[in-house]
Each structure stands twice: as C-alpha cells, then as structure tokens.
Amino acid sequence: MASILVRYILVKRSFVKIILVGAGNIINALLGFLFISSVAKILDTGSFGKYALLSTLLVAISKLTDFGTNSVYVADSIATEDKKLTNIFYTLKIILLLFSITVSIVVLKILNLGSLTLSLYFVLGLIAYCINYTLNAFFQKKEKFFHLVSLNTLPAIIKGVSAILILTGKMKINLDVSFGIFSLSIFSSSLLSIFLSDEIKKFKLDFSKTKEYLTKSSPAGISQLIHEGWPSLSNSIAKITGSFSNVGIYSLAEKISNILYLASVSIFTVLLPKNAYAKKRNEKYNFKEVFIISLLVILMAFFGTFASKFFVSEFFGDKFSESLPLLSFLVFASAFTSIQMFMENYFFIENKTNYIMYINVGRLILFLALSWLFIPNLSLKGLSLSNLLSSIFSLVLSVLLIRKVQKSKSI
Predict the structure, then answer these.
(1) What angle in degrees, to the nearest 10, is found between the helix axes of 210-241 and 353-410?
(2) CB 127 within 8 A of CB 98
C-alpha cells in the first residue's frame, strides 16, 4: 500500500511539473505565434516564405550547438556526479558553435539568402541560441523548471510586444526587421545566467574527453537535428517544388500544428531528470505514465484540428486559405511525433541513444521517399501526408525498440 502511495505521489508531482513547463511553453508559443501572425499579415506570401525559411533554418542549425550534448550531460552528471563534466560541456559548446557558424554561412549562400544584414542576424542568433541551450541544460539538471521556462519567456515577451506594435501600425517591418527581431530577441535569455551557482559560472576549457562525449552524444544529436530540422527541411522541399509563396502557405500550417510538439518538449524536459534519478535508485521505468500522457496528446490533436482551422479562417481570411487542407495531416503528425519524442528519454536512461538515431534516420528516409511519390500529384497536401505517415512509422518503431530493450533486460 505504501509503495502504491509513493508511486501516486511521484506521478502526481510529474504531472504538476509537466503542467508548469507545458503552460509556460504554451504561453511562449502563443506570444511567438502572435509575432509570426503579425509578420504574415504584413508581408506578402513570398517575403513571409523567406522569413519562414530563415527562422526554421536558424532553429535547425542552432541545434548543432547542442547535438545531443544537453541530454547526455544531464543524465551523466546526475548518474556520476563528475564535476569535470561541466568543463567538458562548456568546451563542447564552443566547438559546436564555431562549427554551426561555418555551416550557416554556407547554407545561406546556397539558398541565396546570404545578404550582409541577414547573415549577421543569423550568426548572432546562433550565439544567442547556444547560450540559451547551455543554460537550459543547467536548469534541467537542477529541475529548476520555472527558470528553464523563463529562458524562452523573455524572448517571447519581446516578440509579443513587437507583434502588438506591428498590428497597431506603430512599427514598420520588412524581411530584415522581422528576422532581426526573431533572432536578437533570444539574447534576452542570457539574463537568467545570474541564477547559476558560482561553481557553474567558473569553468576552464577541457578537451580531454570532448571526442568521447561528442561520440556518445552523436546518435542523439543526429536525431535532434532531424527533429528540429524537420520544419526547415519541409519548407526547403516546398521551395524546391514550388515557390516562396508555397513555403509561406505550408509554414503557417506547420507552425499552428507545432503546438503539440511543445507538449513533447515539456514532457521530455520533466521526465528525463526524474527518470535519471529513478534509475540511480534502481527503480523501474514508469510506462503507465507515458501511456496516460500519450492519450492526452491524441485528444489534444482532435481538438486542435478543429480549433486551428477556425483560427486560420477568422484571422487570415483568404490570404492563407490554402493552408486549411494541410492542417489535419500536420496536427496529427505533430501529435505522433510528440509521443515518439518524449518516449525517447527511455533510450537516454538505458544508454541506448543509437536507437534514437535509427528511428529518426528511418523516419527521414521514409519521409523523403513518400514526398518524392506524393508531391508531383498532391503538391503541398502530399508533403503533409508524407509527414503524417513518417511520424506514425517512427512511433511504431520506437515502441518496438523499447520492447526489444525490455526483453533483453529480462533475460
């Protein structure tokens, strides 16, 4: 009876933390969506398509500064309490930042988006995101979820205020100004560094185990790049097979559906340190908790499908009416991807991060193959359908691999 009561209390605490992080992420998303909506209303569909491609590319390439190191650092530092890991972690961040800046310059040049102003905003945005992700890991490890959510709240407030100024006609924008606000607002999260302990603030470069940890993080890092790079990949396909207007139409539908992705981020944020501490205490992984949360995400998808279509019709009118047929596919694709993503923390806990890479590389290959088949006849609807089918595939594969690990442990 006592053990049941303890489990109930732990599950309840997890839900409270998930609600806290989820509510914060939703508020941040709403402010961010208010900004992107204001940009979409002012810019023509072609310019908005360029903005969408730039912003999604920035988020995708910025994940190179993480590349799975955050989750590995959180799990390993809790399990081993090795104080040297912090120095290695900082060193990896600097190496990955320099690499991401190099990649960004090449990508912008290839896409003919490399004007001096946009390139400068892009590089500054990468630096800002690197600081944001680094602070995120420290707050996640200590389970300081209010501070963690605030990392994105400060930039969201800046975007929300900018959106109000734009919609009321008090701020004039173009592509450069819009992307500049999106990129530079991330620097505000660095203010939260004042809440770090003096021990974490003081560090020295340590290259001793950087290769080892980069190798250990790479499977999760590749998976993370696929996750975070998905919108920019989809937008790039929309551009290659159509125009920047197509990018704008698809991106708006994708942004609306992405609200469920935030649910997975919130859940992953809470469950990773919780399950790492449970693993340290030799406790079993709580699959019932995952099942209940999965059902809630699916219910949210049904509601989100109807609500999102109403929102687009009322707020944008006919300007983005072509986004409406895409929403059902993308909302449920986001739901299945969300469930798959927060299930991934199981592989971190069991040191099976290579499985995460297999799942997401498989998803990517299937998505590209289906896009090649469907887009010629179905256009953007084919792109959305490819997204949905590949997300279902990755969820099923995740469940099968978790069962495989469970069976191997029972032998």
Answers:
(1) 120
(2) no
State the chain's mean pLDDT as an integer. Answer: 77
Dist CA 153 CA 27 (whole Å) = 8
- Output Rg (C-alpha) for the chain, integer angstroms: 21
- Residue 9 burial (C-beta neighbours within 10 Å; 0-12, 13-18, 19+): exposed
Q: Which residue has the higher pLDDT, 25 or 117?
A: 117
Kindly list the distances between the CA atom of residue 275 and the CA atoms of 14, 24, 102, 271, 350, in Å, as whole numbers in the listed order: 10, 22, 36, 6, 10
Among all chains, which residue has been given the structure tokens 């939703």? 26
Confirm whether pTM is higher than 0.85. Answer: no
Cα–Cα distance between 77 and 189 in angstroms, integer? 23
Longest dimension (CA), the chain: 67
Residue 6's pLDDT band (boundaries 50, 70, 90)? very low
Rounded Cα gap, residues 187 and 61, in angstroms: 17
Q: What's the rounded Cα separation, in Å, for the pair 222 and 64?
A: 9
91-130, pLDDT tens digit by residue? 888 999 999 999 999 988 887 776 889 999 999 999 999 9
Q: Give alpha helix (H) positions in 242-323.
A: 244-257, 259-280, 287-316
Residue 359 in contact with residue 340, Cβ under 8 Å?
yes
Q: Is the pLDDT of residue 319 over 60?
A: no
DSSP letter for 360, please: H
Q: How far apart are CA 226 and CA 211, in angstroms?
A: 22
363 Cβ partners below 8 Å, 6+ apart?
Answer: 226, 390, 391, 393, 394, 397
The secondary structure of 50-100 as a DSSP string is HHHHHHHHHHHHHGGGTTTHHHHHHHHHHHH--TTHHHHHHHHHHHHHHHH
